Amino acid sequence: MKINDRIIGGLTILGGLGVIAGTLEFREIPGQQFGSAFFPRILGVALILTGFVQTVTGANGALFQVNEILKGRSGLQVLAALAAIVIWVIISPALGFILTTACLIAALAMLAEGRLWPSIATGVVMSFILFFVFGKLLRVPLSYGLIESVLT
Amino acid sequence: MSAIAEAFVLVTQPEVIVTIVVASFLGIIIGAIPGLTAVMGVALLVPITFFMDPVPAISAIAALAAMAIFSGDIPGTLLRIPGTPASAAYVDDGHAISKSGRPEYALGLSMISACVGGVIGVLLLMTAAPILARFATNFSSVEYFWLALLGLSCAAIISAGSKIKGVLSLLFGLWVATIGIDAVAGQPRFTFGSIELTGGVSFIPAMIGMFALPEVLRNITARATKQEPPTMGPVFRGLGTAMRKRWRNLLRGGLTGSVIGALPGAGADIAAWVAYAIAKRRSKTPEKFGKGHDEGLIEAGAANNGALSGAWVPTLVFGIPGDSITAIVIGVLYLKGLEPGPIIFVKTPELVYAIFFAFLMANLLLIPFGWAIIKASRHLLRIPPAYFAPVVLACCIVGSYAINNTAFGVLTMLVFGIVGWLFEENEIPIAPAILGLVLGGMLEFNFVTSMLKSQGDIAIFFSRPVAAFLGVCVLFVWIFPVFGVWRRRKIKGVRT
């Protein structure tokens, strides 16, 4: 999604003001000249100045421009990839790492015009490899989920 | 036992050698797949290195990067799709040689150039780093403040595209670095009430998100190429004669790349373009460049890997990253409890020399691994993005999860991935934001410490000769582009 340069500048100015506003409640340390707010306030001012220059020098054009990548089937693929991350977070503790990851890979591969069986095979093989590398070799506590009784 | 002998023992441990070989294998595959870059490969490797000792961890990163930068030439040469941005400078020459029926010759030249350039870079690293480190042991917070600011300024201003957008990216990274509890005052900053954010934004998920997720999104919508990669003949045929004829290009490319790589903020892609331009200027047949000539390919190919090694000089000596990959390395060193800078040369010299040896080993391994990947490249280039993009996404998820074993890491990766993608869509460079995130803490600490020492007197930043010199360099980096814009407008005004 392409955003007009002047809007980027405006958002940067708002960001700078937000950073400065966020420091107003930081408590001062008695006897110390430069506290927690000192550096973020400098950043806030720098953001405002950068935003101002960006607004003044930025090119004119459409306010927002939806890129080809977000239109039609491509847009669906992008949204699916982002949604897959959230879905993984929600369901992997119950369903287990291997099943969730295999489904995620296979579904996204098919959505990206991969063929059915190669997509499923890629999902299954790669989820087992990742489970072996992270879960077994590196001892990351990945959930077994539904297939715990089969694998343990 | 001397530090060098100790380092040699460290790097020849079976687990280190196995790690280097596995990382080299991964790197050479990642670089050869169009759309997957060396930086992304390193970003995905970091969660695995999190569980390793410092020497194998850093060796793995060095090996993966060296291999991926070379194998990025493969899709460039065979399909005219640069595998990594660093391969773009000479893609036309490589592809033209390939189309003339000698793809193995073009790739063989790239392989030898990358190996020699990498070795030159390592030799420079081995020579320059300890000398600079001895000099840097006298630095105080003021010099470190200027060094950090110099590195950040170069990253923001030297980066391709709009300089203002580079600064914007940098300020975003610096702001993200302030999130969490302030170590001095114990004040939570910008945590929005989240307990997870009190420890700050986790560097690894943020970095995976910004570097890898935009590539996944691009690849998941990409279609498989219709081009059929050509078959390969004997890889080493004719290389000896070519290298004897072009040894000047090889050495000059390696040196140019190493020196440019050592400048903070200038990475392998800038080095390759500069080396290509130098080769063209010094050539007796500049008209042949871009049409299948080997001079530019050899010189820029050597500069690529030379820059990769050179970037480690400021990283190890000053703790200032030379490029995106070394920015990640600094984050890894901090995670391992090692503070990059001159003290690391005094406290753990064996570790530094082990890194040098690992780098040398990785560059020498380029020949056997390079030969194998050139032979196998036909098959690798046929893998459609539909299959590898979801696998990379799964690696991003599990890598982000593995750092703290919480889903918060995965969500951090998602948020930073969307930010990274928006940045790329709007031509805002990502590297300055990552450098800001890595160096923000150091910059703030040295700035506030210096201000407290001087009780607010800004003159302290110019009170020592080296500090004053560095300060002038920073001011030059900031003022020069402004002066350039003013001059261009003035010339334009005179013409109209």
Automatic annotation (TrEMBL), chain A:
InterPro entries: DUF1468 (IPR009936)
Membrane-spanning ranges: 7-26, 38-66, 78-110, 116-134
Keywords assigned by UniProt, alphabetized: Membrane, Transmembrane, Transmembrane helix
Domain DUF1468: 10-142
Keyword Membrane belongs to the record: yes
UniProt-recorded name of the protein: DUF1468 domain-containing protein
Organism in which the protein naturally occurs: Paramylibacter kogurei
UniProtKB/TrEMBL annotation, chain B:
Record has Cell membrane as a keyword: no
Source lineage: Bacteria, Pseudomonadati, Pseudomonadota, Alphaproteobacteria, Rhodobacterales
Transmembrane segments: 16-48, 54-72, 105-132, 144-160, 167-185, 197-217, 253-279, 351-374, 386-402, 408-423, 430-448, 468-486
PANTHER family in UniProt: TRICARBOXYLIC TRANSPORT PROTEIN
Keywords annotated in UniProt: Membrane, Transmembrane, Transmembrane helix
Name of the protein in its database record: C4-dicarboxylate ABC transporter permease
Chain ranges of the DUF112 domain: 18-435
Pfam families: TctA (PF01970)
Source organism of the structure: Paramylibacter kogurei
Signal peptide limits: none
UniProt KW Transmembrane keyword: yes
UniProt superkingdom: Bacteria
